[in-house]
Every structure is written in structure tokens, then in C-alpha cells.
Amino acid sequence: MEGLLEKVLSLSVLLGMLTSGIRLATPYLYAAIGETFGQRSGVLNLGVEGQMLMGAFAAFYVTWRTGNLLLGLLAAVVVGALMGLAMAVVTVNLHAEQGISGIGFYLFGLGMSDLLFQKLLGTVRTVEPFPDLPIPLLSDIPLLGPVFFRHNVLVYAAYLLVPLAWFVLNKTTLGLNIRSVGENPEAADSLGISVARVRYFTIILGGVLSGIAGAALSVGLLGVFQQNMTSGLGFIAVALVYFGAWRPLGVLAGALIFSLVNAMQLWVQVLGVPIPSELAVMMPYILTIVVLVLTVSRARPPSALTKPFEREA
Amino acid sequence: MKRLTDVLFDALLPLLAASLALLVGAVFLMVMRVNPLTAYAALVEGAFGTPNAVAETLVKATPLLLVGLGICIAFQANVINIGGEGQMIVGAILGTLVGLTFTDWPGWVVIPLAMLTGFVGGALWGGIPGVLKAYFNVNEILSTVMMNAIAVQIMNYLLRGPMIDPVQKAMASEIPQTAALEMAFRLPRWVPTRLHLGTLLAVVLAVVVHVFLWHTVWGYRIRAVGKNPDASRYAGIPVKRYTVLALLLSGAFAGLAGVVQVYGVNYRMITDGSASGFTGNAGFNGIVAALFGGLHPLGTVPASVLFGALLVGANKMQRAVQVPSALVIALNGLVVVFVVSSEYWRRRRQRRRMALQREAEAPRPVQETAAASSASGGQD
Amino acid sequence: MFRNPLFRLLLVFGLALGLLAACKGQQPATPAAEEAKKPFRVAVVMPSAINDLAFSQSMYDALVAIQKERGEENFQFVYSDGMYVVDDAAAAIRDYATQGYDLVIAHGSQYGSSLQEIAPDFPNTSFAWGTTVETFGLPNVFAYEAASEQGGYVNGVMAAMLTKSGVIGVVGPIETGDAKRYVDGFVAGVKATKPDATVNVNWIGSFSDVSLAAEAAKTHIAAGADVMTGTAQMVVGAIGVAKEHGVLWFGTQADQTSLAPEIVVANQVYHWEVVLNQMIDLIQQGTLGGRSFAIDLANGGIVMVYNPQFDLPDDVKAAAEKTIEGIKKGEITIPLK
User: Fold this and answer.
1) What local confidence, expressed as pLDDT, does residue C53 receive?
2) How high is the pLDDT of residue C17?
3) Which of B116, C112, C306, C309 is most buried by its number of CB atoms within 10 A?
4) Using the beta-carbon criterion (under 8 Å), do C259 and A16 form an inter-chain contact?
5) Residue from the list C206, C210, C222 with its beta carbon closest to the beta carbon of A224
């Protein structure tokens, strides 16, 4: 047992876990940051998973047809934006219950991406995914270089998105508008901010980022599309927004904790630690809750979350 | 007062919205060179065409209704419970354990005991997020998503390990399922269909939940907490406790739904590795059914039947015209989006009605009357 | 009420749809066009998509092969894919039986319980289910299974000979059924050939999580694996990783060569048509069930397909062929569990 513990805690294993965790967190970051924008403006989108699947398929299909990864990524952006647009019409203009419409969009994306996959691809196919792009000099740092600086461009971009999102939300007028629409839409409206326009922006942005999250899987990390390949990832992403208390840095922490524990459970199995595989698989889910319980936060959701806005006549 | 046209409008609106969604679906069908007429005829026939079809629809509707009842309670307290899948699983595991343990007890003891156990199991799995929310500020969406995943892994472990059917244990295939329940423990059925007593139970419980929410003090408080937590706190209602109670009850009904699936339909637990293999997504679809029913326990009854009909009919359509089942899922999603959007017109109509009512009741200010009469004069 | 244009629109659509539905009586009856020569009709219910490059596809491909062999006028089949919800599958099985198909196949071990209940109600219809050996003592139920440990063993022998690092990685879904048999066989094959080799097994707890499967593969590689295998539809993620890192891959359930011709060494491929043809012949002779079948190396239902683009060393191929012969003759027995 002691030997085993030593094996689990050896340097190479720890570095391996770190690398895996950083990679695994990528799709969560895109999707959860997108969801953060939406929720900050008062819109809960449970359809992230569906948007991711559609984005993953669009990116894969276009890349497969054209051989151009950037075109594929663009396709994911467009499809994500369209899914977001539909969500915006339904929740902003028609005031539909947000949670339920999200479930509807999830089912639509789940079915439609699978249908398109069957009809347009016919079978599982592969493309050459975004190549790893070692950053000169930095990637040569002993030990930590390969951990942090040998990933594909979509991985780096995901991490750059975090400070960018923080900046936009906290230091720009746009961010201020988003936050005030989410906290007090009536007041924002009286100040001349168009609640509808802000929410359209955040929901579509959320769709775009979810689409990219899907692309980060299908053409970023994997180079393959398979039915239901996100496998619940989109729901985890929504959960991570709550973990992060609607702050990009909090979301980053949540995504990293979840992914690192997930990486750890893979290692636990690979190293032959004698526990049932199911217990290993459960670990990230349990630990995410435990961490949140231990760090009892006082954060509260945006006041107008899930509440449609309607101008008093 | 609601007029007949209003009632009709409220009832027909979701149907029309669903039809509109299917009309969009018709485009997809035509692209796939399938005649939408044939397809949708099969859908209707599959849901209502024969006594067996109706029975299948009701069987499908039962877990939706049970989960939906819990959702009604949670929504009244302003809590979203998307943990129905996990709660169904935990309820079913505990309920099944009862049936597999007390094999020589009479059915009239074991069945209620199993249901009670499942009810408690679901309550536990729903209560944990409740406690986490009320006392640790852990959002219920986060905790329920995580606990769904945990429940699936527990089920997979138990069904391939400690709870596996001894017959399967001996075979090479080792199918992850429990032993079958004793004949005496199976809910009575309307032979030769699968319609079972659980459906009736669910309808009875809909009435019970209605009474609970609108005619008991607990129900009143749950609603008060949902409407305005600050005012409730001021009025001396222990808000946290009622938040926990709402999630707990919501989970309990999902847990019961899980037990009813085992004792009424499958007679054993089987896993394909995912939650939906066992739950049939009822943990999510029940939320949709509750919303279609206006978040009212009695409204959830017809809403569940309609949603069940859609699910059963769409599968029949898949068989009749041989489209991939993926299309059925996409259509399902479209219907949900369209129906939930159609609520807009219902609300608008309701508002107008209320405005009219107010206008009729309130004495009109003189100026406005004058303006109105002058306007009508202009029309003449 | 009728002044609202959107509402009017809804109403029109609704009425139109109602009309459409009312027309259903006029649809032409599908089967039994020619009484003289009725084709053999099969319906199959499957848990995932027909193109999953794994379990469901293996059955679909088999039915297509039989149709090609017997001709469309003699053999027809319909399918319900994506029937992962067990009670939906039960409804589908019953419905197909009601429609008078000659053979209804429940292609998923989780459907057995439902079949046990349905089959007695249709004594003139033949049912088949897999993968198992259990026919419940019913005269109209066939059972079929794949001796997937055999191909696993052969793959294991080759893997043991090809590994230089002595570390082999396995990615699986959940620890049961066909997946477990394959992995058990694979591990036995490795151990029999190279007792000191390490086989790391990773059950990711899901049939669909492609990215976790990929990360599991990366973990294996980081732990030193230079040969990998895996089973079920989510392993396509792991194959991509293997390709990227130049790690050898052994496939099962379907021929996965097309995904990575550079590194796929060999695949265990299922040919259910071997047992299906036997069943069909029996049914046509009047025997509707009561027997269980297995595809294996000996009856040609399991075939080892080498990747022609991979330069397999002669000694490894010879060892594989010898192992196949040994298993066929029963000289090699594979301990399960």
C-alpha cells in the first residue's frame, strides 16, 4: 500500500495529472465562461450541452469536408451563434421559462447532431486535429514547460479567455451593463440600457463559446465526432458557473479542480489502486461538492436570474 | 372568472404549439424522403390508436407524472430540481433491495414498504442538495448535476457487484442486473397491456399534492417561501427548513417514480451504464411535463399523458418509417421549445383578461371616459 | 381571440395537422404484397446507432451482409436504433412481434428481462437476444453471444510481443458483459505470452464520453504504454490519441482500421451473420428457438482482421495464427475472471 502511495505521488505522475487536468478543463472553460456571461445578465441556459454537440459536429464536418481547421472552427461559431439566437428569441422575446427551454435546446442539439452525423458522415471518421503548439522557450522550462506550454491553440485560448472575461465583466461599460441588467433590469432600463439587446448579446456569446467548446473537443483534442460525445459535459459546465459564483476566476478554479480530480482518478486506475472503478469515476463529482461545502461562500446569484424582463406598460 | 373560450385556449395552445413543432419536423422528414403524413399518422396511432397504445402512453406518463409532482412542489418554493434522474435511481435501488431481501413476506406488505423506502431514498438524495443549499449556500443546480452522476456510478457498481443477479454472476456475460422480483411483488396489471397500478397511484398522489400545496399550512409556507423569502422570514417562517422540505419532497416523488418503474414495468433493475437507460430521461422530462401542466399537480396529469403520448408515438413513428431515433430526440426537443414558448400567448391573454376585469370593476376616471367617447365618436 | 395573427397561424397549422392525421386510413398497407413468395422479415432493436463502429454496427452490418447474400426479395429487415431506454425497447420488441416479423432480435443484454416476458405471448414468432446463452427455456427464443475473450486473447498475444516498454493500456466502458470478456481475454493473452508485462486497465464509467476515453489513453501513454486496446463506441477518442502518439492499437467489435491506418495492428471483427443464418435456417425448418449460439473463431463468426497497411513482423503474425489455431482446436483455454 505504501509503495502504491509513493507511486501515485511520484513527480512524473503529478506532472501527468497536471497536464491532463489542464487539457480536460478546456471545454468546460469555454462553455462555463459563456454561461457566466448569460447568467450575469439574468439568463440561465441549460442547453449548453446541445450547443456543444452542434458546435462539435459543425466543426468536425466542415473540417472533414474542407480540410481547413479554421473554417471548421468558424462553422462551430456560426452554429453556436444560431443556437444562441434561437434561445434568445425564446427567452427574451417570448419570456419562456429558461430552464425548460434549455432542456428543449439540449434535446434538439443531442438529436440533431446525431442525425446529421448519421446522414452526412455515415460512419465515424477522423480529421487531423489542431496540432500541439509548443511555445518557444517557455515549453523548454524543465518539468513545468511541457505541462503548461505544449498544448493546441484552443487550449491556450481557453485560458486567455478567463482574464479577458474578467476584464470585460468588471472593467468595461459593456460589463457594467451586463451586470446591471442581471441585477436590476428595471433600473438598467430606466438608465437607457436596452435589456433585450444586452441579453441577446450574452446569450449569443454563450452559444458561440459553447460551440467553440464543442469544437475544442471534436477538432481540438480528439479529431473525431461520435454521437453524444459530450456525454454530460455541458451540464457540468453549467454547474461550474455556480461553483465559480459567477466570476471567471471562480469558474477557472472550479474547472481545474474538477478536471484535476478527473485526471487523478484516471491515474488511480492506471496505477492499479485497488478500489472499484466506479468509486474512482465518482471522485470528481464528490470532491467538487465537498470543496464548495468547505469553502462556504456568501455569493448569491444575480437577482434577476431566470426572470424574464418586461417593461411596465 | 375564466370564460369557456379561455379554458379552451389554455388547453389548445400547447397542442397547437406541439403541432407547429411537428410541422417544422415535417421539413426534416421530407429532406429524408419520408412522407410526413405517413410518419405522423403512425405517431398518432402509436400513442392512441389501440388499447395497447393508450396503455403504453399511460405507462410512459406515470414516471413523468410522479417526477412532475415533485417538480411542482419544488417550483412553488422557487427551487429547480434537475436531480430527478439520480433521485429515481437511488429510490429504485433501495426499493428493489426491499423486494430482494424480504422474499418470503406477503406482497401487500412488501410493495408498500418498498415504495416507502424508495420515497425515503429519493427524499435523501433530494434532501442533501436541499441541506447544501439552505445551510452551505451550494446551488442546487450544481449539487443535483453532480449527484446524478454519483448515483449512476453507485448503480453501476451495485448492479455488477453486490446486487447482481446470482444467475448472471455464474455466467460469462455477467449482465449487470438484479434478480427478478417475486411474482407476488409485481404491481397488478391490466392484462395483456403493461398498464399497472402505479398509474392510478400517481393520479391519486396528484390530488394529494394539490391538497398539500393549497390546503395545508406546510404547502402554504412552501409557496410563501417561493414567492417572497424575505417577507416569509419576517412572518416567522423558517425559510431554510422549508427550502429543504421542498427539495426533499421533490426528490421523494422522483424516488417513488423509480420504484414504480421497477415494480410496475421492469421487475428488476438493469443498467446500460447510463442514467437514462433506467430512467428513460423521466427525471428531465418530468420537469417539462410539470411546466406544461402549469406547475399545477392536477394540470400535470394531462400534461404527462400528452408528453408520454409524444414519446411513445414518436418511437412508433421511428419503427413505421425507419428514420434514425436521433430524429425522434430532436423532434422531442423542438416540441419542448415550442410549447414552452407558447406560454407567452397564454400569459398575455391572462393579463389582458385581468386588465379588462380591473377596468370593469374600477370606476373610470372622467377624463378617460371623455377621451374614449370622443374616440368612438370619431369612428362614427 | 381570432384577431391575433399568430394565433390564427397556429390554428391553421393545427387544423392542417389534424387533417393529415385523419388521412392515415388511406395509407397503403405495407407488407404481404405477394403471397406467393414471402421474404423472410427480421426486426432488430439496438441500444446505440447503426454506425457506432462498435456493438450496434456489428449487427447492422451482419444484416446487410445477409441481405446481400440472400437477395432483397428473400430477406428484409427493419431496425430501431438508439433504444437505450429499456422499457422503450420492450415496447418496440412487442410492436415488431405484433406486426408478424419472422424473427425479432433484441440486440442488447439489457433487453433479456423484457424478452422473457414478451416471447410467451407470441408463440409463433421467433426471438433472438444477445449477448448471452440464456433462452429462459422458451421454445421461441434463441440466444447468441460472442466469445469475445478469444479475439481478446489473440490481440493480447500480439500486443505482448509488440510492446517494447512492457506496459499496455486498456480503455473500457463499464466492467461488465462483452467489454469485460474481451478485456479478461486480452489480459490473459498478454500474461500467457509475456508474464512480466504490465496491463493497466481503465474503466471510464461511460459508453459515450469520448474525451474522457481520450484522456485515459493519454494517461496510459504517460504511464509508459506503447500498445493499447479498448472496447465500446467511445474508444474512437482513444484511437485518435494512439495515432497522435504513434502508439499501437488493437480493435474489437468492428474493423477500426479506417480510423488510424498507421497504428491499428489488428481487429477482432464480429460476423453475426454466421449465427443468424443458422437461426434463419432453423426457423424456416420450423424450429423457432430454444438454442443458444456463440460466434467464435472456430465457426468463423469471429474473424481476426489484420491491417494490411501495418507492417506486422512475421513472427508476431505466426504466433497470432498459431494462437488462433490453438483456440479453434480447443488446445488453448482462456480463463475468464
Assistant:
1) 85
2) 47
3) C112
4) no
5) C210
Please name the helix (run of DSSP H) or strand (run of DSSP E) that holds residue B379, with its range, or none: helix B366-379
| Structural contact between residues B56 and C33, judged by C-beta atoms closer than 8 angstroms | no
pLDDT band with cut points at 50, 70 and 90 for residue B27: very high
Pair C73, C39: CB distance under 8 Å: yes
When mean pLDDT is compared across A156-170, A189-203, B7-21, B324-338, the lowest value belongs to B7-21
**Which residue in the set B156, B157, B333 is minimally distant from A111, CB to CB?**
B333
pLDDT of residue B12: 85
Tell me whether residue A134 is in a domain.
no
d(CA A24, CA C237): 13
Could you give the domains of chain C? 40-146+272-295 (3.40.50.2300), 148-270+300-329 (3.40.50.2300)
Is the pLDDT at B72 greater than 90? The verdict is yes
CA distance C212 to chain A (A): 8
- How confident is the model at residue A311, as a pLDDT? 75
B295 close contact with A: CB closer than 8 A = no
Residue B12 cell numbers, joined: 389548445
pLDDT beneath 50: ranges in chain A: 1, 313
For residue B268, the chain C residue with the least C-alpha distance is: C113
Predicted local confidence at residue B365, as pLDDT: 54
Residues of chain B neighbouring C42 (CB-CB closer than 8 A): none
Cβ pair B340:A106 closer than 8 A: no
Candidate from C13, C24, C90 with C-beta closest to B23: C13
List C-alpha distances in Å: C208 to B273, C51, C204: 10, 14, 10
In a domain, A120, yes or no: yes
| Sheet containing C264-270, strands listed edge to edge, beginning at the edge strand earlier in sequence | C198-203, C167-172, C227-230, C248-253, C264-270, C302-306
B82·A99 Cβ contact <8 A: yes
Check CB contact under 8 Å for C51 and A123: yes
Question: Which range of residues forms the domain containing residue A231?
Answer: 2-124+148-294
Instruction: State the complex-level ipTM.
Output: 0.93
Count of structural domains within chain A: 1
For residue C35, pLDDT over 90 is answered with: no
Task: Please report residues of C whose CB lies closer than 8 A to that of B278.
Answer: 86
| Dist. CA A259–CA A263, nearest whole Å | 6
pTM: 0.91
At C31 the pLDDT is 46
Return the residue matching grid coordinates 427524499: B123
In the predicted structure, residue B348 carries a pLDDT above the cut 80: yes
CA–CA dist A118, C79 (Å, integer): 15
Give the Cα separation of A32 and A38 in Å (integer). 10
- CATH number of the domain that residue A172 is part of: 1.10.3470
Query: What is the band of B10 on the pLDDT scale with cuts at 50, 70, 90?
Result: confident
Kindly report, residue by residue over B77-108, the tens digit of the pLDDT: 988 899 999 999 999 999 999 999 999 999 99
Full 3-state SS string of B179-224: CCCCHHHCCCECCCCCCEHHHHHHHHHHHHHHHHHHHCHHHHHHHH
User: What residue of B is the nearest CA neighbor of A122?
Assistant: B324
Within 13 A of B168's CA, how many CA atoms are on the CB side? 25
Judging contacts by C-beta atoms under 8 Å, the chain B residues touching residue C7 are: 345
pLDDT at C11 > cutoff 90: no
Residues of A numbered 18-57 whose beta carbons fall under 8 angstroms of chain B's beta carbons: which are they? 46, 50
Residue type, B65: L
Question: What average pLDDT does the segment B182-187 reach?
Answer: 94
**Nearest-angstrom CA–CA distance, B122 and B116:** 10
Residue B3 scores a pLDDT above 90 = no
* DSSP 8-state secondary structure symbol assigned to residue A131: P
Q: Is A307 contained in some domain?
A: no
Q: Has residue A157 been placed in a domain? A: yes
- Cell readout for B270 is 438493469
